[in-house]
Amino acid sequence: MTETERAVDDAERAREQDPAPRRQWPLPRRLVRDELGVLLVLGLLVLAIGIPYPDFFDTDNLLSTAHNSVYISLMACGMVFALAMREVDLSVGGT
């Protein structure tokens, strides 16, 4: 019996001993927690603005706000991509 076959047998035995495998999250818990935090803060900000100013929840106002935020969102997506790829050169700022 080769080492590979032994490893497969050991893995099968371990799987048989643990009949209820742990459920794997589709997303890491940290990512879910971070995303929920951002959405919670966004919801609180919308409520904090909408309660004193009820016209904020008007359909025309919400559409106008969404249309105006597209430009900033597109620029933010570009910056996130550059930061994620670590393509940021800060040496230019020193000159």
How is this structure best described in words?
There is one protein chain. The chain has helices at residues 3-17, 29-50, 59-84. With 95 residues, the chain is mainly alpha-helical. It is elongated, with a radius of gyration of 25 Å.
What would you say about this model in short?
With 95 residues, the protein is mostly helical.
Any chance you could write out the topology, listing elements then pairs?
Layout: H1 3-17, H2 29-50, H3 59-84
* Distance N to C terminus: 66 Å
Shape: elongated
Mean pLDDT: 79
Biggest β-sheet description: none
Structural class given helices, strands, pairing? Answer: mainly alpha
Our count of helices gives 3
Which H/E pattern describes the elements?
A: HHH
**Low-pLDDT stretches:** none
| Cα radius of gyration in angstroms | 25 Å
The helix fraction, in percent, is 55-70%
- Percent strand equals under 5%
Give a count of the beta strands, DSSP E runs of length 2 or more: 0
Annotation keywords:
single chain, 95 residues, mainly alpha, 66% helix, 0% strand
